[in-house]
Amino acid sequence: MADRESCLCSGGPKLIFACSGAADVGAIADQAARKMSKDGIGKMFCLAGIGGRIDGIMKTTEAASMILAIDGCPLNCVKACLEKAGFTAFKHLQLADLGLEKGKSPVTEEAVSRVADKAKLMLA
Amino acid sequence: MKKIQILGTGCPKCKKLSENAEAAAKEMGIEYTLEKITQINDMMKMGVMVTPALAVDGVVKTAGKVLTVEEIKKLL
Fold first, then answer.
1. Are A55 and B59 inside 8 Å of each other by CB?
2. Mean pLDDT of B22-45
3. Cβ-defined contact of B49 to A2 (cutoff 8 Å)
């Protein structure tokens, strides 16, 4: 992605924010977002940049055509981060809704793909 | 001395933003430097993934918009 020299002005990107938390479900959310980015479905972006109010990340997020928040657990940290930064128009995927319970969900390829498949539908 | 940076790969939108930024600075009579950042890696270092973007004194003010001269004046 970073090596392309094509123009970046053809429309706002679809941005994906994952909680990337310490628990198993955080890892699944993170890896699903990375998979989606690699597969060209959207672009994973830095949630920490939203928390830190980094100007470039904030302005890029404001220009996004669509935003997806992937939260690993019901604490909904991604959702809270985005909302506290003033973003309200985003889609939200909660892994518990897919039956992935915190502390009881091994980080497997199957789990990552399940989340990525569901998230892909939400960004369509 | 204001440091104006235009982030974009050089497409017509980026050029227009650059022209408008220069016009805004000149109309305001301020001293400025204008830098064009055209490498995507350099843009990403500033957290920008959508262009054209405008930064003033190192702070990204807008991304994905071609601002008018009047709009840019408010940011300088």
1. yes
2. 96
3. no
